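Posted in: Structural Biology > Protein-Ligand Complexes

Title: Requesting predicted complex, ribulose-5-phosphate in pocket

I'd be grateful if someone could produce the 3D structure tokens for the following input. Sequence and ligand are given below.
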Amino acid sequence: MRTMAISPQSPPSSSSALPPPSVALTQDELKRIAAYKAVEYVRSGMVLGLGTGSTARHAVDRIAELLRRGELSGIVGVPTSTQTHQQALALGIPLSDLDAHPSLDLAIDGADEVDSHLNLVKGRGGSLLREKMVEGVCKKFVVIVDESKLVPYLGGSGLAMPVEVVPFCWKFTAGRLRQLFEDAGCTAKLRTFPETEKPFVTDNGNYIVDLYFKKDIGDLKVASDAILRLAGVVEHGMFLDMATTVIVAGKLGVEVLDK
Ligand SMILES: O=C(CO)[C@H](O)[C@H](O)COP(=O)(O)O
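-- Reply #1 --
Done. Output follows.
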């Protein structure tokens, strides 16, 4: 794995919108720096997977800005959620889908956790299924995060590892998921809206069960296979061996981690 450190004083090219170096950077500014750096990988004529979330949103904005300025042309975007679809549509980015473009040049997306092997947890925004479909068929998958997303092992943030499940008997499926990871002190919780306690429904009409672990779940491939074997599970948020590059923006600079 190659690492390259770039100081925040050397921001991505033509980035007049970035804050001056002396200013303490907020988490959102770090996300924007990572996103702008990722957009440097975009070339005219590419078919692009457009990720979802507050970090990916900056990348979509930046692509639209470069299209407007004529610095990019002939881009086709494949959005990973209705949210990103709406954003890109409003910005005038030409859009398509996997039916028309079953292979993509590049995808840019955020992540919730990144381990030292560039495995990811994704889906706290609820778009994991479409993200996995799109990002699984791109030649290059560039992940953009601020440094808070780096973890010693997946699940290590203590925050949710999302699993998309069919609504039918979701309690049964949640129970089976919990049992799978009993040794890791797993709890399984249906994702709901705090105000109404109604279930969060994905773009695909499914529910999300969030798994929380007290310990490392061990072999990720074994865990992935076990989850996917459960009838009722649609997809999980572990993205194993998919990222080709991770761009990490931190207070001390930007690091580019290549597989
Ligand atoms: O997987 C995702 C959505 O399903 C997001 O990429 C992930 O949740 C990171 O989001 P953010 O950039 O807002 O921190």
